[in-house]
Amino acid sequence: MAQYSAVLDGVFVALGDPTRRAVIRRLGRGPASVGELARDAPMTLPSFMKHVRVLESNDLIRTEKSGRVRTCVLNRERLALVEDWLAEQRRIWLDRTDRLERFVTTNDQENP
Amino acid sequence: MAQYSAVLDGVFVALGDPTRRAVIRRLGRGPASVGELARDAPMTLPSFMKHVRVLESNDLIRTEKSGRVRTCVLNRERLALVEDWLAEQRRIWLDRTDRLERFVTTNDQENP
After folding, report:
1. Which domains can be identified in chain B, with CATH numbers?
2. Which of A90, A62, A34, A23 is nearest to B29 (CA)?
3. Among A69, A101, B7, B73, which lies 20 to 30 A Cα-Cα from A34?
4. DSSP notation for chain B
5. Chain A to chain B, count of Cβ pairs less than 8 Å apart?
6. Which residues contact residue A82 at a Cβ distance below 8 angstroms, ignoring those fewer than 6 apart?
7. Which chain A residues contact residue B9 at CB under 8 A?
8. Does B112 score more than 60 pLDDT?
9. SS3 letters for chain A?
10. For range A66-71, the mean pLDDT
């Protein structure tokens, strides 16, 4: 549980940056090389590489080097963690709404 | 667009902390005072207040002071931003799957 929480911390913080979200979005369309990805980013290659490493260390993307080209692939399962967390929050709200509804219905019946 | 991106940055970073996620989860069940929320957090009140302020400055929660009690309320709309971003990524993946499927189908027809 503590480990799951630490993974979520890293994933959320990794997503809290426009360059990294742009990489995620681009990789949603399919794998791309670091060179291709860097072309769209308004920064130097070393700065861009730092973002790639943050995404990779949080397992949001995987990279593989073949010759001089490093190819990046999206790991959708990591984003599913965020979806699961949001779904959990929604369940909590719905439970609350159900409880409120039962409360109102019970009170209506008791005080018609 | 740049403003939306900056808002997302803040929301994602704010969610990248277990104490802040615990506050969001608790407030999903209904409003609570800072005192109540702090009771569950393994830290001093000043440290906890910093987390409350991060959530408030990113509009994930709203707080109101009445006498000596500050009550916190969840702002679900901010979490909807994260849901929207995730939904956008899913659309991109689905488009890609559709394109791949059309490509495979077309090739099957051309090379039966």
Report:
1. 2-110 (1.10.10.10)
2. A90
3. B7
4. -HHHHHHHHHHHHHHSSHHHHHHHHHHHT--EEHHHHHHTSSS-HHHHHHHHHHHHHTTSEEEEEETTEEEEEE-HHHHHHHHHHHHHHHHHHHHHHHHHHHHHHHHHHH--
5. 72
6. A8, A11, A12, A15, B82, B86
7. 16-18
8. no
9. CHHHHHHHHHHHHHHCCHHHHHHHHHHHCCCEEHHHHHHCCCCCHHHHHHHHHHHHHCCCEEEEEECCEEEEEECHHHHHHHHHHHHHHHHHHHHHHHHHHHHHHHHHHHCC
10. 95
The distance of B105 to chain A (nearest Cα, Å) reads 19
Give yes or no for B84 touching A (CB within 8 A): no
With CA atoms as reference, the chain A residue closest to B28 would be A93
pLDDT digits (tens, 9 = 90+) for A8-36: 999 999 999 999 999 999 999 999 999 99
